[in-house]
Amino acid sequence: MSSVWNLLNPVRNGGQTLKLLDSGREFFGTVIKHGINDKTVTVRVDHKFWVPKYKEYQSSQKKYQVHDEENFCVIGDKVVIRSCMPLSPTKHYFVRNIVKPFSRDEFKPQKDQKKELDENVKQEYEKVYKELLEGERIRLSTKKRKEELIIKAQLKARALQKAIAIKKSFHLEKNI
Length: 176
Description:
Blueprint lengths: L1 H7 L1 H4 L12 E9 L5 E12 L4 E12 L10 E6 L7 E10 L10 H30 L4 H31 L1
Parallel strand pairs: 3-5
Antiparallel strand pairs: 1-2, 1-4, 2-3, 4-5
Helix pairs in contact: 3-4
C-alpha cells in the first residue's frame, strides 16, 4: 500500500504512474547510498500502514541493499526495485528502473577546479605549518627527540585543519 501511495504521489515520482507487483516483490524507494560497493546501492523504502488501535496511519522505513548493474544510480534517485534470487547474503533486489533521476551535474567535480583547490590547500598548509613551527621552536629545543616528533605531528595536523578551514571559508565567500 505504501509503495503504491508513494508511487501515485506526483511530488515524489515526477508525475508518472507505474504499476507495482504485489506481495512485496516490487518497492518504490529513494537511493540513499551509492559508490561504496561496486554495483550496489542502498535504497530506503517508506511504508505506511493502518493501525486499528490508534485509528491512524503510521509510517516506517526499511533499507535494502540493491543491485545496480550499470552503476548509474546516485543519491536522491527515485527507483523501483524488484526482488530476485539472492545475489549475496544481503542483496535480494535489483533496480528495475529509475522513475525520477536526481541531477548528475553536482556529482562530477571539475578536475581543474579540484586540482587548483588542492594546490591552494597545500600552499596554505605549508605556510601555517611554518608559522606554528616557529612559534613552538623555543619549546622544542628543551624537549627530547620523541616528544619533539609527537609535537611536530600534532602541529602538522593542526596546520592542515586550519588550512582546509581557511580554504573552505574562502571558497564559500567566493561563491556568495
